[in-house]
Amino acid sequence: MRLLEFQAKELFREYGINLLPSKASKTIEEGKIHAKELGYPFVIKIQVPVGGRGKAGGIQKCQNDDELELKYPQVLGLTIKGEKARAILLEKMADIKKELYLSIFLNRSKRCYTIIASPEGGVEIESVKNQIIKEVGLGNVSDEIAREVAKEMKLDGKLADDFADILQKLAKLTVEKEAELAEINPLAIMQDGSLMALDGKFVTDDNSNFRHDELQKYQEKTEIEERAEKSGFSLVELDGDIAVVGNGAGLVMSTLDMLSDNGGKPACFLDVGGGATTESVYEALTLISKMNRVKGILVNLLISLPVFSRLKGTESEKAREMLKNSRTKIYDSIEDAINAAVMGIKK
Amino acid sequence: MTDIFRLLRGNPEDSDYKKKGVIVQGITGAYGSLHAKNMMSYGTNIVAGVTPGKGGQKFEGKVPIYNTVKEAVDATDAKISIVFVPAKFFLDAAKDALEAGIKLLVAIPEHIPVRDTMEALELATQNGAVIIGPNTPGIMIPELIKIGIMPPTPFKAGRIAVLSKSGTLLYEICDALTSAGFGQSITIGVGGDPINGTRMIDAFEMVKDIPDLEGLVIIGEIGGDSEEVLAQRIIDIGFKKPTVAYIAGRAAPKEKRMGHAGAIVMGTYGSAESKVSMFNRANIPVAKRPSQVPVLLAGKMQKSD
Hints:
The complex is a heterodimer. By secondary structure, chain A is an alpha+beta fold. Chain A has helices spanning 5-14, 28-38, 65-76, 143-152, 157-177, 223-230, 249-261, 278-289, 316-322, 334-346, and strands at 2-3, 22-25, 42-47, 59-62, 79-80, 83-84, 87-92, 96-107, 112-118, 132-135, 179-190, 195-197, 200-204, 234-237, 242-246, 266-271, 296-300, 307-310, 328-331. Chain A has 3 domains: 21-92, ATP-grasp fold, A domain (Dna Ligase, domain 1), CATH 3.30.1490.20; 96-215, D-amino Acid Aminotransferase, Chain A, domain 1 (2-Layer Sandwich); 223-346, Rossmann fold, CATH 3.40.50. In chain A, strands 1, 8, 9, 10, 11, 12 and 13 form a 7-stranded antiparallel β-sheet that branches. Chain A is elongated, with a radius of gyration of 26 Å. In chain B, strand 6 (104-107), helix 5 and strand 7 (130-132) form a beta-alpha-beta unit. Chain B folds into 2 domains: 4-132, Rossmann fold (3-Layer(aba) Sandwich), CATH 3.40.50.720; 153-304, Succinyl-CoA synthetase domains (Rossmann fold), CATH 3.40.50.261. By secondary structure, chain B is of the alpha/beta class. In chain B, helix 4 (90-99) runs parallel beside helix 5. Chain B contains 10 helices and 14 strands. Chain B has a 7-stranded mixed β-sheet with strand order 3-4-2-1-5-6-7, sandwiched between helices. In chain B, strands 9-8-11-10-12-13-14 form a 7-stranded mixed β-sheet, sandwiched between helices. Chains A and B meet through helix 7 and strand 16 of A and helix 5 and helix 6 of B.
């Protein structure tokens, strides 16, 4: 799962990484209380699980109550890359001397954790220049490696020590929480010479959730997603109107592609998993029926079995006509379908 | 480099030539027993099962079950094991196998934590062993040996090597290949996880020198850069056998995991466009849909005639 900035910062704080004072809220009333506690000026930052917040107007300066009153609801009402605001973070402003970049990520092609650091941070990773790259196996960063990276960053004295310290703390956090990515961008050198994490990105390995009860409070799921997970499905909701269901992630992705190629708009990606059973397909169709935007369902199951189906309801005659020459056998009542299935299998 | 055919088929002078023994870890579970039976009926020589606490019993009345892989290896001398245990027990099962001398470990389970995969991988490297997967359909030489969960019908013996991240797309595309008359010399499921025991490029190294190889099919999907790395390798060594690719996930949104833990686009990293353009640079056509794969392959073969 991808944590929001303020959640990532909660973890940073827990691991002793320097941060500016900040508070997260969901309503302007809460925001006003935080404003009093922090004092002006500060920035308000939309909390969404995607990048590009600044460009979309999701980060605004506030100098006084009037500006807060005006900008808080504006920022809270933004939708960025389809993501609505989960919260608003108020964060003190401070004088920055220089912005650095620091991250530790799971390097898929090298199959190890890798540090990326750069003296030129504050921009998206793709455009970060002068990258220093160090492979660190399972993620543990020794004093020696930390100092080496600081040196390559051309930092010295106390700044080098502080940088090495933050790098090791970030590594410890990455290993202990089983993150796929822990990023501080920018990691700022302040006018007073201290180092501060001004933004944080943290992505954990969902497959290790069972070892991390402490992270589950960050999990956000719609009711439908929760049901899907319980049934062992993978579900990604999309904004089109044709639901796509199948067994196997690759097959469903491929179906999504073909549907889009032909001008269709997928409403969801739903993979019922490798061993599709009657129950799982039934549950999948039930879930889809709860999605309001769905106008049609495209099912692509790779099974070498006959399908017995009961189809009744508005426009079922049309559906029946369409399935006339298929291997799917259609029945009016569920009893007939069950009988046919039982008899069919016995043969 | 791993001689995968030596492991799966052996040499004519071997006493177990074309009947290499395979151990099934988790043979008494619902999934493990189902697929153990399926592999046996395909002709795979299942020599032992392992389920802690069930040693001494027999599977299907004939395959002996042991408590540990060590005992199973001592009794059978098998070098291959396939794992069906739940994800959270995978690392222990993998250690058990690798420490007992297993040289090819096929890891079927999905949802294994990445850290556990990396630890298992480290141990495999130390022991000179190979892991296929996790989250893989397995590996097979059609009509000879199946170590995995693939349905048998899509596959036929032949001279095309197929590498795939996805299970179902492997079946779908092999079905299309078989129908078009292209049998397969070997199929390798690299798996849908972010970290693969055998990466696309490793799988390519295993198949590229097959003497009678007539073509290569690469079935990729969004996420990571293993397709790009492979395409670069193909350019670098000047691999000339007719090659065709398919990439799933062109229509997937960014930063969403599409079913497979590894199928996620971060920024431009892992995007379908990046993979397709790299294959284009390697002069490898990319099919728009699975059914196009044999058509493009036939086209490539004509050109190379």
